[in-house]
Amino acid sequence: VSLLIGHGVGAISHPTLDDGSTNPEYVSLCIAASLLSGLLQILMSFTRLGFITSFLSHPVVSGFTSAAALIIGFGQLRHVLGFKLKSDNNLFVVAIDMFSRLGEAHWPSILMGFLVMCVLYAFKTVPRLKKLPSAMIIVFLSTLLSWALNLGANHGFKIAGDIPSGIPAPSAPSIPSGEKLSQLFTAVLILTLIGYCESIAVGLTYASKNRYEIRSDQELLAFGVANVVGSFFGAYPVAGGFGRSAVNANSGAKTQLAGAISGIFILIVLAALTPLFYHLPKPALGAIVIMAVQGLLDYQEPIHLYKMGAWGDFVSNVITFLATLLVGPELGIGVGVGCSLLTLIALTSSPSYSVLGNVRGSNLYYNIAVMEPAKEVPHTLIIRFDADLWFANCARFKEAV
């Protein structure tokens, strides 16, 4: 979503001014995008357009999830390594750049990240520790250590630094007019569709893991209300994020109550506690996210599909995985939906058919290839075509006849 906002709004107004400060018009357009996106999502919810998620098959979601987990993991490595990675939608380009610059790595940060991962692994595997809030404990201890040793100033660690406190006063978003509104709406339309599909992919991942169902139209309404209300407080469009969702799930969250508690805690932190996070070391945060998303790597799904001979689903899974790695999550999920549609078209345009025969002495007709007592009716050919007849399979029907 942030990438789409950056590209869409950035094409209308530059993010910064000549002196390097933030461009107020750019910020205003981002907030307006939030309002427009929210209104569009509410409209889609009322018109029952959530059905578009039916094209997100489980193999597509699995391939997208695995690739997104790798992308997020690599993205967090910049905190563990101590240097900024190259910004590119192609994960392989990012990986090559990272390995070529390992000489720039901050080894104390790597050591901290490795130790945090080991501790989190212990929390996951030791029965007595499983129920403890591991992420919260790590944040507290690492922040305390960073403050006591002044890791940021004395040892070159990257820390969270100053975090603005307080909640902005509500104000009505400023909607542009003319050509800018047209350009912004185009960007918002793409953002809404892709962001929603990506969010539903996140939801379907955890719905499958925890055995519950999600209602797509209800999710649209929830996102729409969040975006509309958020726009009055200076927020830009929201969507379900893999990284934060993984951390939340890894902490034991099962219901919406976790979101309410998280929201209340954030309000308290914004109001009074932001100075306490000044010394929070970023290598610890990066390690927490990496450990959270590694559980999303679903290597068993393509193996299962291959063994089952489900070639359409197998191809959709692999193509979605590779596309997400090569062109990014936003386009990757679109490629996945496209694969699902192409698979559906391929299946309905080349359906199976069979010749039916009558079982003597009855009104029963069966496929003569599998039911030996069934015999063809003299001077009559009966064909069962296993699909609705439409223009894409007319040629197949003629060949069968």
Automatic annotation (TrEMBL):
One GO cellular component, as annotated: membrane
Localization, UniProt: Membrane
Q: How does it sit in the membrane?
A: Multi-pass membrane protein
Return the InterPro entries for the record: SLC26A/SulP_dom, SLC26A/SulP_fam, STAS_dom_sf
Signal sequence interval, chain numbering: none
Q: Where are the transmembrane segments?
A: 26-43, 55-77, 105-123, 135-153, 184-208, 220-239, 259-278, 319-347
* Domain SLC26A/SulP transporter, first and last residues per copy: 14-310
One GO biological process this protein is involved in is: transmembrane transport
Q: Which UniProt keywords apply?
A: Membrane, Transmembrane, Transmembrane helix
The keyword Transmembrane helix is assigned to this record: yes
Do the record's keywords include Transmembrane? yes
Return the protein name: SLC26A/SulP transporter domain-containing protein
- Look up and give the organism this protein is from: Hemiselmis andersenii
